[in-house]
Specification:
Blueprint (H helix, E strand, L loop, with lengths): L1 H10 L4 H8 L3 H8 L7 H11 L3 H20 L1
Helix pairs in contact: 2-3
Length: 76
């Protein structure tokens, strides 16, 4: 999911600093989220998506697809 959030930010031409300003956090917070050092809870995730003007369910679809692939690998 962190890669998906980073890709959404970059596709909008936003820097980490600009997204941080939208969120009211530092750019290092955004960086930690994007590299997976900082995990978001559900409320933070929705808040993050709103700052990026993306639908939270789009990112959840990515997570579900990854989970399905992992489950398939376990059956092999």
């Amino acid at each position: 999911m962190n890669r998906w959030l980073r890709d959404r930010r970059k596709s909008q031409g936003l820097t980490m600093r600009e997204l941080g300003e939208r969120l009211g956090v530092t750019h290092s917070y955004v960086q930690k989220v994007e590299i997976g050092e900082r995990r978001l809870d559900v409320v933070e995730y929705v808040w993050y998506c709103k700052a990026l003007d993306v639908k939270p369910d789009e990112g959840l679809d990515v997570v579900l697809k990854c989970a399905e692939q992992i489950a398939e690998w376990g059956r092999e």
